[in-house]
TrEMBL record:
Compartment(s): Cell membrane
ATP-binding as UniProt keyword: yes
Family annotation (CDD domains): ABC_6TM_MsbA_like
Bilayer-crossing regions: 17-39, 89-118, 171-189, 195-212, 283-301
Topology class, membrane: Multi-pass membrane protein
Single Gene Ontology MF annotation: ATP binding
Domain ABC transporter: 373-608
Keywords: ATP-binding, Membrane, Nucleotide-binding, Transmembrane, Transmembrane helix
Boundaries of every ABC transmembrane type-1 domain copy: 22-339
UniProt name for this protein: ABC transporter ATP-binding protein
Organism field: Flavivirga aquimarina
Main location: membrane
């Protein structure tokens, strides 16, 4: 129930729709009850029962006598318009019943009309909230989660809430009010019979609650399994080329089918438990009706109840049914809350996840880069073992520093730390003497241009891919073309059917690896940041493109602070300083010629590449 209350918090912006929904439901419940009460005069006419019709309009004497007042006023109006003619009286009563049912259905329509805006608004805001939190959370959160599970939470789980939790919004006001109004009339007609009925209602509630008890657990299994097969689907689409290349289609097919088979069995158990609810509540309802027929019939036959005559007993039976219908709806609503509890919990888990990299209160919005970037004795680990140990490095403004080393030495971790994708465990990273943790994340990343080893592009035009982010948003077509020229990308972009407006497909797969990398370099060039981070940026280029792009990068990085993480050592020979890493520690540091003359680790790396 706590999850239900949490979800309802998102309804606050739509309170005007909620108020409209509540008001219309009040009228729906009222007219729903009156529609059965209106049967009484019709039954009296049909049974030709003698009426003591007043010749004058009855006077209001207070709420305690509202039942008598309504009955006398209705009789007075019928006599006034029909002059005692039973045929006209029957027409009058039929018109009255039609009017009450019309008003009931109009109220019901407008209640649902307002509910549409309320429910869909909550779903939209909830989905947006989950997506926004997903984007805000650090990369470390997703290294422990399957992408398919995240997709399932944003799509299937939110949709599940729409048809579980939020469908209950319709029942919150309408059904309880219907029961209250109906029971009030039933108590007026026969307190004795109504109190007798109440003895059996707790029994019905107890049986229904026992059936719904395990729904949350069963629903949770279904949703988790849905996340599993969505993860398999996502991995399949991402790695389809490798799957086909290694003839692994059958292996992935079996993996997917195993998951969908588990989903099939879990869903069957969940739905069969849900399906048990309706016939059980229906049978229990009929049991209560049978008790009313037996006990109420005896009261009518014995004449011990003053209000309960033959026609009123039929009205009472109709009112009893009018209680059972919303009671069944409420029981279904409770099932839905149980079922939706698992989905709400999974969604709330993302929303409530703390972001350890969130800007601290009073974070500085730094607008310039003036002197130096400094790594002050930092250490960092992803899990148990440190991948950087006591790493210290000062990069003066305008200087190019290259970081080299074998795979796993911690080179790319430096790029992850300076961009605050992760925070250091020990030490500090300083820009102009200010710890980057004291800066707003936005102002920090505004100063950084990033070109990663994997060219990350999106299913959009070349123009929109380059204009990604606030810094590039106002770039003109001429600016884009100039950036493409610097990155040696204009030579192939100009020959595309729509030039810079050409769509490059999912993840840029319409282009070659070298072309994609040149576009990602052009994107960083267009941003024109004071600090450039190149994480093995030329590794995907062929030799000829590498030379041209390397020359363009070197030209671009003049008077710009640069951190170049390099695999190909031929690309960083002109660096102002080269840092050699081994197992997270600096083992050598200096210019290219100095390090070669030492004939140490760097020399061996260069020799290995020259030999290769």
């Amino acid at each position: 129930m706590n999850h239900f209350v949490n979800i309802l918090r998102y309804a606050k912006p739509y309170k005007r729709y909620a108020i409209g929904h509540i008001i219309c439901n009040i009228f729906f419940a009222l007219f729903g009850t009156l529609s059965f009460v209106a049967l009484k005069p019709m039954l009296d006419v049909i049974f030709s029962k003698e009426q003591n019709v007043p010749t004058v309009k009855p006077e209001w004497s207070g709420l305690m006598d509202i039942g008598d007042f309504v009955k006398k006023y209705l009789a007075f109006m019928m006599d006034h318009y029909t002059n005692g003619d039973n045929s006209k009286a029957l027409v009058f009563v039929v018109c009255l019943i039609l009017t009450v049912f019309l008003l009931k259905n109009i109220s019901g329509y407008f209640a649902n009309y307002f509910l549409v805006f309320l429910r869909n608004g909550v779903i939209r805001d909830l989905r947006n909230k989950v997506y926004r939190k997903t984007v805000e959370l650090p990369l470390s959160f997703f290294s422990e989660k399957k992408k398919g599970d995240i997709l399932a939470r944003v799509t299937a789980d939110v949709l599940d809430l729409q048809y579980s939790f939020l469908s209950v919004l319709e029942l919150i006001v309408r059904e309880p009010l219907t029961i209250i109004f109906t029971i009030a009339v039933m108590l007026y007609i026969s307190p004795q019979l109504t109190l007798f009925v109440f003895i059996f209602i707790p029994i019905m509630g107890f049986v229904i609650s026992k059936i719904g008890k395990s729904l949350k657990r069963k629903s949770d299994r279904v949703q988790k399994e849905q996340g599993t097969f969505l993860s398999t689907l996502e991995e399949t689409l991402t790695g389809l080329r490798i799957i086909k290349g290694f003839n692994a289609e059958e292996e992935f097919n079996e993996k997917f089918q195993e998951s969908t088979s588990r989903f099939y069995h879990f869903s069957n158990k969940l739905l069969n438990r849900q399906n048990l609810a309706s016939p059980t509540s229906e049978f229990l309802g009929i049991c209560i009706i049978a008790v009313i027929l037996w006990y109420g019939g005896n009261l009518v036959l014995s004449g011990t109840s003053t209000n309960l005559d033959d026609s009123m007993f039929i009205v009472y039976m109709g009112l009893s049914y009018n209680v059972l219908t919303p009671a069944k709806a409420i029981s279904r609503g409770l099932y839905n809350i149980k079922k939706g509890g698992a989905a709400a919990e999974r969604i709330q888990e993302i929303i409530d996840t703390e972001n350890p990299l969130k800007d601290k209160e009073g974070a500085i919005n730094k607008t310039s880069f003036d002197s130096e970037l400094k790594f002050d004795n930092i250490s960092f680990k992803y899990e148990d073992e440190y991948v950087l140990n006591n790493f210290s490095l000062t990069i003066p403004k305008g200087k190019m520093v290259a970081v080299v080393g074998q795979s796993g030495s911690g080179k790319s971790t430096i790029a992850n730390l300076i961009t605050r994708f992760y925070d250091v465990n020990k030490g500090n990273i300083l820009i102009d003497g200010t710890d980057i943790r004291d800066l707003t994340t936005e102002s920090l990343r505004n100063k950084l241009g990033i070109v990663t080893q994997d060219a990350i592009l999106f299913n959009d035009s070349i123009k929109n891919n380059l204009k990604l982010g606030n810094d590039n948003a106002n770039a003109t077509d001429d600016d884009i073309i100039e950036a493409l020229k610097i990155a040696n990308a204009w030579e192939f972009v100009k020959d595309l059917p729509k030039g810079i407006n050409t769509n490059i497909g999912d993840a840029g797969n319409k282009l070659s690896g070298g072309q994609k990398q040149r576009l990602s370099i052009a994107r960083a060039v267009l941003k024109n940041p004071p600090i450039m981070i190149l994480d093995e940026a030329t590794s995907a280029l062929d030799t000829e493109s590498e030379r041209v792009v390397q020359a363009a990068i070197e030209n671009m990085m003049k008077n710009r602070t640069s951190i170049v993480i390099a695999h190909r050592l031929s690309t960083i020979q002109n660096a102002d300083e080269i840092v050699v890493l081994n197992k997270g520690e600096i083992v050598e540091q200096g210019k290219h010629k100095e390090l070669i003359s030492k004939k140490g680790v760097y020399y061996k790396l260069v020799e290995m590449q020259s030999f290769g």
